[in-house]
Amino acid sequence: MNLQMFQRINTMLLVLFLILHIPGIAAGQAAPQQEKSSKLKKIKDVQHIVVRHAEGEFAAWPANNGIWSWKKGKEILVGYTVGRYDLEQEGHKIVNPKNALARSRDGGKKWTSFSVEKIADENIVPGELNRKINFKHRNFAFRVRGIGYHGNDIDTPCFYYSYNRGKTWKGPFLFNGLDEMDQVKNLIMTPRTDYQVMGKNDCLVFFSGTSGAWKDKTFVLKTSDGGLNFSFLSWIVPPTDPYRAVMPQTITLNKNTLLSVQRRRDMPPKSTPCWIDAFVSTDGGENWSFLSRVADTGHGNSNGNPPAITKLKNGDLCVVYGNRSSKLILCRLSKDNGKTWGEEFIIRSDFHSEATAFADFGYPRVIQRKDGKIVAIYYIATKERPEQHIACSIFSVESLQ
After folding, report:
1. Which segments of the chain have a pLDDT < 50?
2. Which of 70, 159, 201, 366 has its CA 20 to 30 A from that of 398?
3. pLDDT digits (tens, 9 = 90+) for 30-60
């Protein structure tokens, strides 16, 4: 056997090994790849502000609870989960979690925390909505509650809405029609708050559901009658995809084009990187295709972090996320509607915790203010404040150029 023939055989054996052993290759899916490392830049003009912190208290997970803004970002409302900080607790050091809210009326500089009974009380049984929602109401807010994460120990997914910027809420209400959807009827529903208002009576709600641990997949529900009934519109990441897809956050790029960024990971115990993917629909959410890989969020067993995204006034897209391996809160810009992404910038690098074996932080939400400043809200622990708490960082778009 000559050298050339030997090399050909080796190449064929390597290809066969990859097809048989790397998830997704045989199914036509791209296996996750580690991005090339590069020297990261710190944002120079960033201002860090405490949203909610108290000794003996654990506050976390804005991405599980939602963000809303009015007056072009001057008024911001963010949800989070709070409980007693307990060092003896396995995993997250939280006991008796309840959902709460914090409001800023000056673009994120000062915050007031408060609790609303209907949001905090997980024992309220959801009912059926009997009056149409006006999704175009100028003080409207919509909140989705799923199954299986802290502060949401419920039996069925439900939603709330508010006409007074979250001071009071109506609900919880059932997603009427969900139980009859053949496409998802056997899934455990794990949605967070992600929706796009399409008209006075029309709204898309971006859902996830799972058939088992780490098997979440994402799809879209649609209502055209003010929330009285919902129908299945489309899969974003279908059941045939081999990787976890959960916690979408979706924005509208133009009349018919939607972009959804999602939290992704391989099945444990694999230590391949967790990552964020972007998907696009050009027909109002009826069909979706993969657009780009946005960023890495930590090694597989860290479970990664969900993305937050906003479209900036200049047309750029800004995505914010945590990387639990590097222990950094990061952001990135796209100047071509999510097809490619620029360099990573460090928003925050001072995470510190001696209580947990993993970087228990992140889960951001993000908005842009009228003056152009970006406000990113997340949870973190530091040497000065060792309990997990809610914080925000404010910085300029110019600092990302």
Report:
1. 1-29, 31, 34-37
2. 70
3. 545 544 445 899 999 999 999 999 999 999 9
